[in-house]
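Appendix C: a fully annotated inverse folding record. The material below is reproduced so that readers can follow the format used throughout the book. The structure is listed first as tokens, followed by the designed sequence.
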């Protein structure tokens, strides 16, 4: 099954991707040209009914991660097209501090953007701090739920979508062993692990799941495709033929490695990675993807603010409402669609309870 000679080329390519992504993130302001460098208003951000546009602060990796940030950007792009709003996109650097994120969000609020959205749980504390200083601006954060009267948290049932991926993996594997790669070993990524392992074991308890993390506590895990490539190669070398990676832009490294191995499959995450132009050459190796509707959540928040609403609190996007799903692009899981649908129905109607912890 293995085609080892491909790995060295893969690592070289993913290392280049990591360098490029990091280089692109060296400036804390990666803008789409809609502004963001100017400041307006005082500590209250000015008149919230005269928004200068929308500010979206990406997690590490930027919008071209083909995954998590890209999904958020899709929601912003849709808002530009359908609502006529202007979006300023900015990107975090590897190894950023809390103060770095506070500075970025503060600049967006001072520029008059409303809402201001942080993409990723790393923005939790900084959103809470900055939102308290700009009570007339709505702040949103994806994958977290900080407190604040003007803060809207958007969370997802990643474990439910990952359960379906586990069902698909258990029904597809020919070696009886599959793998999971997490970017960082934290509660959020452990939700992906928990659902995937439970789905595999519920479908075929004889299938083994090899679980590995790129980093224990370092956000580089979401922007290190070279390390993901090496980890995927090790998992495949130990006998797995399916690798599910939940690690942001690092996942591109795993997908590339899997694509170089005959008979192996990758499972994507956050976006439908089969449909990502930047991964088109690996389409034949992407079995499916666990899709998080970050684009829908981002669009919903922008639309609400544009309609004069001030949403706050937390909304959890679940499988039942389409907040997470399993992609069918490529048709590779069409032959097991009945089993996938049965698992979906079981989760939605409460017959299957998916754990969010390993």
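Designed amino acids, in order:
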């Amino acid at each position: 099954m293995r085609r080892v000679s491909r790995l060295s080329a893969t690592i070289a390519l993913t290392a280049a991707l990591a360098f490029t992504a990091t280089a692109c993130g060296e400036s804390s302001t990666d803008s789409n040209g809609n502004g963001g460098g100017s400041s307006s208003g005082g500590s209250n951000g000015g008149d919230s009914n005269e928004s200068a546009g929308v500010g979206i602060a990406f997690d590490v990796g930027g919008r071209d991660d083909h995954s998590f940030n890209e999904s958020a950007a899709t929601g912003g792009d849709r808002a530009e097209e359908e609502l006529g709003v202007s979006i300023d996109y900015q990107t975090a650097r590897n190894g950023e501090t809390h103060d770095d994120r506070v500075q970025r969000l503060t600049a967006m609020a001072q520029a008059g953007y409303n809402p201001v959205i942080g993409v990723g749980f790393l923005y939790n504390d900084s959103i809470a701090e900055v939102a308290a200083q700009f009570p007339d601006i709505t702040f949103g954060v994806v994958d977290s739920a900080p407190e604040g009267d003007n803060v809207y948290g958007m969370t997802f049932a990643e474990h439910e979508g990952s359960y379906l991926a586990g069902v698909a993996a258990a029904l597809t594997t020919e070696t009886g062993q599959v793998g999971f790669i997490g970017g960082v070993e934290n509660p959020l990524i452990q939700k992906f692990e928990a659902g995937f392992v439970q789905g595999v074991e519920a479908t075929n308890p004889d299938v083994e799941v090899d679980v590995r993390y790129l980093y224990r506590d370092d956000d580089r895990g979401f922007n290190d495709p070279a390390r993901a490539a090496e980890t995927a190669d090790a998992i495949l070398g130990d006998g797995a033929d399916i690798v599910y990676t939940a690690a942001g832009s690092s996942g591109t490294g795993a997908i590339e490695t899997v694509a170089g191995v005959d008979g192996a499959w990758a499972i994507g995450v956050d976006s439908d990675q089969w449909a990502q132009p930047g991964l088109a050459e690996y389409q034949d190796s992407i079995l499916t993807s666990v899709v998080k509707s970050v684009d829908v959540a981002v669009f919903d928040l922008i639309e609400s603010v544009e309609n004069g609403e001030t949403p706050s609190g937390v909304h959890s996007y679940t499988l039942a409402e389409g907040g997470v799903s399993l992609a069918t692009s490529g048709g590779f899981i069409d032959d097991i669609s009945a089993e996938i649908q049965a698992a979906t129905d079981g989760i939605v109607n409460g017959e299957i309870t998916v754990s969010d912890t390993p």
